[in-house]
Structure formats: structure tokens, C-alpha cells
Fold OmpA family protein.
Amino acid sequence: MKRKFQQLALILTCSAVAACSTSKEAQPVVYIKKSPVSNQWVADKEGELRESIKGSPFTLRSEKGKWIVTAPASESFNPDRPGLLMPHVLRPITQIAKTLQSNPDSAVLVLGHSDFAGNTRSNHELSADRAKAVASIFRLSGFKHGRMMHLGMGNSYSLGHGQNNRVEIIITHSTEMQGLMAEYHPVHMRQLASNR
């Protein structure tokens, strides 16, 4: 209740400031022209990424100008401590991170996913813990906050039985990171709100 009151007060304050503005001139609208990621950028990353995940349980696919590495939770995380990575997947994650670290035009979004078993809150927490575990490997490899983000998505992106428990490492051109966050962050925020 207190939070809603604070939000309402903030909205009213912002509205009052905007209404009392002395400027009568129309403010220009700035449109950012989105340049498509070149097919060459996508093609250049394939060989390095395939080599990085070779021999691991990870899969790689290309989708709309970005690469997605999928790590199935059943083979990547400790069954007794589901937010802890198994030792055999540290090498491929580290290899991906080191490969991309040397390419400053690359950015990474790590998404944790869970299934429908249990309650929504625990599923969201589990997916966030898994995303954070993978993201920590990227951070240890030198990735900074602006080039790498992580989100727990809970069970909001269902693939079907047995495929929901996973972590996706989305690799995109750095100019596309803002658009990627605009796509996934609202879903993440709805998951958080539904858990309260």
C-alpha cells in the first residue's frame, strides 16, 4: 500500500512539473534508426562458438541476428543444489566468455528458465539463481555490466515438458543489447511482481 502511494505521489509530482513548464516550444522527437546486424557478424561468431561448446551438453542456434547457446539444467546444474553449476560445464562457459571478451562488439544476455513444478516464486528464484551462476563466469572473464546482463524468467517462456529448465546465453551485437533488454526485461518485472 505504501509503495502504491509513493508511486502515485511520484506520478503526480512529475505531472505537475511537466504542466508548469515554461517552455511553449515543441520538443523535437529523436528517433534512433536501428541498423540490422550484418549476416557477416553472425557468421563470424559461429565457428568460435561451436568450438567453445564442443563436447558439452550445450546446443547452439541462430535466431534473428543473434546466437543462442542453451544449457539444459538437468545436465548443467547440481541436482542437490540446483543453482550450482556442475564442474564439467565450467569449461565451455569460460570458453564462450573468453571468445566474446576479445570481441568488443559482442554483448550477452543470460536468461534462466524454470518449469511449472512448484510455486511461481520459487521457480523465479531458481531461474534467477541459475542465470546468476552462468553470468558470474562471464564476469570472472572480464565482462562488464553494460556488455552482460542476466535475468530470471521463471516459467514465462515454456518450450514443452523437459525443456523448460534451462539457461540461455544470448549473444548479440553490442548495438542490439538495449533492444534485447526491452524485449525480456518487462517479462522479468511481471514475474517479480507476481511473486509479491
The beta strands are 59-63, 66-72, 106-113, 148-152, 166-173. The helical segments are 2-19, 39-53, 73-76, 90-101, 120-140, 177-194. The mean pLDDT is 79.
